[in-house]
Known about the structure:
By secondary structure, the protein is an alpha+beta fold. β25 (440-443) and β26 form a beta hairpin.
Amino acid sequence: xxxxxxxxxxxxxxxxxxxxxxxxxxxxxxxxxxxxxxxxxxxxxxxxxxxxxxxxxxxxxxxxxxxxxxxxxxxxxxxxxxxxxxxxxxxxxxxxxxxxxxxxxxxxxxxxxxxxxxxxxxxxxxxxxxxxxxxxxxxxxxxxxxxxxxxxxxxxxxxxxxxxxxxxxxxxxxxxxxxxxxxxxxxxxxxxxxxxxxxxxxxxxxxxxxxxxxxxxxxxxxxxxxxxxxxxxxxxxxxxxxxxxxxxxxxxxxxxxxxxxxxxxxxxxxxxxxxxxxxxxxxxxxxxxxxxxxxxxxxxxxxxxxxxxxxxxxxxxxxxxxxxxxxxxxxxxxxxxxxxxxxxxxxxxxxxxxxxxxxxxxxxxxxxxxxxxxxxxxxxxxxxxxxxxxxxxxxxxxxxxxxxxxxxxxxxxxxxxxxxxxxxxxxxxxxxxxxxxxxxxxxxxxxxxxxxxxxxxxxxxxxxxxxxxxxxxxxxxxxxxxxxxxxxxxxxxxxxxxxxxxxxxxxxxxxxxxxxxxxxxxxxxxxxxxxxxxxxxxxxxxxxxxxxxxxxxxxxxxxxxxxxxxxxxxxxxxxxxxxxxxxxxxxxxxxxxxxxxxxxxxxxxxxxxxxxxxxxxxxxxxxxxxxxxxxxxxxxxxxxxxxxxxxxxxxxxxxxxxxxxxxxxxxxxxxxxxxxxxxxxxxxxxxxxxxxxxxxxxxxxxxxxxxxxxxxxxxxxxxxxxxxxxxxxxxxxxxxxxxxxxxxxxxxxxxxxxxxxxxxxxxxxxxxxxxxxxxxxxxxxxxxxxxxxxxxxxxxxxxxxxxxxxxxxxx
Length: 811
Ligand code: GLC
Ligand code: GLC
């Protein structure tokens, strides 16, 4: 069953039934101030860091799911309802949720009143705007009572959930006119407060939660709303909230707008106060004034739309398949930007208090948005590289607010350094900004030991070379890309983290064939970069190491029908026909086929065929097969998951595009497309009841064939799946690939595709590419005509002339 539909023209997903199989959410804000918002107005806001600067409260894992948010209550005589259905859950005569590019519109209709709320964070603004429009569709006047509601979080989202002996005594607010200020801890070490305002005089307010709800009521039934009377409560400790009370009279046909601003302010120490204990409100008032009329709000929304028009204008496809077009042109790109902003911190599966920014994750995320906002990709690369150590190893994570490496997690994930080569080379291919290589970038955030970014790439490469195991393959360390393959952990203590514990390391023979493949792919990128900038000796040196690695993989990484996955602590094979369970893994097949290892010997094709035969299923490609059914202390977390979930034979969508790319390298467009489509959310819309998560964004995991409920997705939004699928479909299936000296055109498509068009802005020109496939081919460019002239290579030159150029391609 479907719960809505795509409105591609407006770039929206429109939900028409509020009872989705799981909350279907959206993200507001794209720089500093962020909110999550569900299709029933659930969610929360934070400034930059979802852990340390949480502005409004949200309870994860609540019953029912997703309660707490940015709520409005409308009391129309005895009927009390909410525009987003929740929290009241009064049946609406009509309901609609439009999730768009960084905005959401919730609309409810009840007893001839329409309430429509537009939620968004304007560009360069530390506030969420909520424009509520009430319309009387009836033929008689309406007297409505309107209550707004947000609940403040006491800033640190972790201590907010646990330190009640303190928290219940610290809460402080100020109320001035129609603005409620939340200033807990402002008088001591904090220089920030938040506020919630409305652009019209209020007839009342409440700021104390229990007074508003009544101690025995939930979100669906605040006592104050039932009684239709605010209590003008002032919070002192306990749980501060902000609720405005407005009496609204509407004539037949009349509409009124109310603009609410939920904002955040930072003040310098010397400007904190207006007078004793009275906070300086200037900045809040400035922001409120910027959005105090509907015209101003509509202008700000138009600017936001323009911003997205620009971002999404860089790459567009017209394939004739609207499911593909809407993913490539809208939702996949949007999700890439969201993962850029949030990394793995805040979603409906990530609580915002767990992980910081991942070294490997952020580098991989880059490849999905670098074409949209290269300046911010540049900054991100420098931030990430600054958390590297002089020997090329790196902190696995860093905190976005401080940009410092996270000591609790530390380093030792031996795939991490290589991803910096991916991120940096993708950035340079997009921009030609070779200057970034000369930037001085600290090690371990210490400017005293800064070296050029190029040097960081060298030590990234060498970190693998300097950490080889007995088979000449890279030592795995705590884990490689697969966080759960913990070959040195050996944990029997449930209180130990699999990722940060290494109970056995001395004499470890644990090696990773996946890192080996990764090293060949990004090692070659490193070599190409060296040649490009004239470092041919370094290129030769690196190439020798790559050749050795290729030999090691061929000799020690091949199992007969597929690539093995690893060697364990004792030097025994992992992911081999010799194993009882998990005989084959996806990661090494992906990386070794992308690297083209054993192409001549037929190993690539064999490995890909084994994937098809053993790992592929109706819902996608599972990570390993057969699933582990018991705990293997020598393998770690991977064997803790029930069969078919997560890293234990789940369809871990992040790695499926590696096989897609591997198939395109082998020229099999039919299979590449089949794999692409299987996990692509827009193709799964009609099985939403099974799939559960949003049909407009990728989920990290879909339960695999061994699972209790195959096909059920989890962990939507914040996943490397977004960038990898965008990268795979645009650069390898559609085959439009930036390179240092131009745009490579090398599609690999299903035989039955007749043609497609791509528009690509690249280095100051627009390439209007038309690909025709008259002979039913899958790969291989036969002819290219650029602006009427035949060109001999499939590398389309740079024009940099601000003009549009026609590129006609025949396969
Ligand atoms: C999660 C992590 C990522 C890891 C993957 C596989 O997505 O964020 O770093 O590579 O899981 O374990
Ligand atoms: C990865 C895995 C997850 C695991 C985490 C680290 O993100 O996907 O299952 O819990 O690593 O603990």
